[in-house]
């Protein structure tokens, strides 16, 4: 008879696999940024790999080689790596765990040189260091770390020059130096071109191609971030939703090329009249959203009146004068996101209904829980 697998046995087999899949997944807080997400993926893989490899190496050195000191050092590094992995996954922290991972790997590689007393075989492994230090830390920080690592390798070699039995030490030192510099240079160039490409993708994914300001996706992220800051620091921020009046008529009378030119010039006009800390986004079509950090309702009203006056006075080459309507509201720590945004949208609708070229305030009751 063929033995059937019970449900309990299946659950026992599935749980370890589920845990492994969960460990291999990159934490979601990094998903919004392609460059950070790539670094987070690499860090997650390196931390898991370091933990597995050094655990096996520690057992091998302890049970087979009989080198208890090396095994103890490797177990200490496993502990440090597990701590970095815990902090990375629990707190979505990238910088600290990344430096701990690269420092642990670098220290292990340096110790191999000392432990083998000049044997040239471990030197091949040294090129592993720039392979992950550049993707983890970026070009500037990684270059500094790698140069310090190369200096440490050369210092160890010079230290063992007269103490270890190295055949033709001068030639070996020259070959190691050239290999490290050329290998690191190739990896630097590769990461430079890859990072530049990722940065272009990142910018394209966050900006509106017509106006050059933030797009709706980026607005959602900034809005979420500002809400989190508001609740953490217990202060309010304001939001202005703007809509160009009779924009369809501009497209119908002058064509979409002129309409696009008006949108570009309108975005530039708003950018020059807002603070560096404010965030302007194209919400969609002829609608724009302006996030005003650390701004109460009175300050937002003053800015709304100033912007309306500026927009009203501006003359477009073909379309002439264009006006806008605005919905203005303030988000406080006790506000509800969906209710607040709905209140802002209703305020914009009221401004349109009341004759356009003006603003309306979101009611406090509607914007709160």
UniProtKB/TrEMBL annotation:
Catalyses which reaction(s): 2 GTP = 3',3'-c-di-GMP + 2 diphosphate
EC number: 2.7.7.65
Keyword terms: Membrane, Transmembrane, Transmembrane helix
Taxonomic superkingdom: Bacteria
PROSITE patterns: GGDEF (PS50887)
Segments traversing the membrane: 41-63, 70-88, 94-114, 143-161, 173-190
Name assigned to this protein: diguanylate cyclase
Source organism: Marichromatium bheemlicum
Upper classification of the organism: Bacteria, Pseudomonadati, Pseudomonadota, Gammaproteobacteria, Chromatiales
């Amino acid at each position: 008879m063929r033995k059937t697998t019970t449900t309990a046995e299946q659950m026992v087999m599935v749980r370890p696999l589920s845990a492994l899949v969960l460990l291999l997944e990159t934490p979601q807080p990094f998903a919004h940024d392609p460059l950070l997400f790539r670094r987070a993926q690499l860090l997650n893989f390196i931390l898991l790999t370091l933990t597995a490899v050094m655990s096996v190496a520690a057992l091998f050195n302890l049970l087979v080689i009989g080198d208890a000191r090396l095994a103890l050092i490797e177990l200490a590094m496993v502990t440090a790596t597990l701590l970095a992995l815990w902090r990375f996954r629990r707190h979505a922290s990238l910088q600290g765990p990344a430096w701990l991972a690269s420092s642990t790997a670098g220290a292990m590689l340096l110790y191999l040189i000392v432990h083998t007393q000049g044997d040239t075989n471990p030197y091949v492994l040294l090129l592993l260091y720039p392979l992950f230090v550049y993707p983890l830390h970026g070009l500037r920080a990684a270059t500094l770390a790698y140069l310090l690592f190369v200096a440490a390798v050369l210092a160890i070699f010079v230290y063992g020059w007269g103490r270890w039995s190295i055949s033709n030490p001068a030639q070996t030192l020259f070959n190691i130096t050239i290999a490290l510099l050329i290998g690191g240079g190739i990896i630097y160039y590769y990461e430079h071109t890859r990072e530049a490409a990722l940065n272009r993708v990142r910018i394209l994914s966050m900006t509106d191609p017509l106006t050059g300001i933030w797009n709706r996706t980026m607005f959602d992220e900034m809005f979420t971030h500002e809400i989190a800051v508001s609740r953490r620091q217990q202060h309010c921020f304001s939001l202005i939703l703007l809509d160009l009046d009779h924009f369809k008529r501009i497209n119908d009378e002058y064509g979409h090329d002129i309409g696009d030119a008006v949108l570009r010039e309108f975005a530039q006009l708003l950018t020059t009249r807002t603070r560096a800390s404010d965030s302007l986004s194209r919400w969609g079509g002829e609608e724009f959203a302006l996030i005003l950090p650390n701004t109460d309702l009175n300050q937002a009203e003053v800015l709304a009146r100033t912007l309306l006056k500026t927009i009203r006075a501006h003359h477009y080459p073909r379309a002439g004068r264009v006006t806008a309507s605005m919905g203005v509201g303030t988000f406080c720590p006790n506000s509800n996101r969906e209710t607040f945004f709905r209140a802002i949208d209703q305020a914009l609708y009221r401004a349109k209904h009341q004759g356009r070229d003006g603003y309306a305030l979101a009611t406090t009751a509607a914007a709160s829980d």
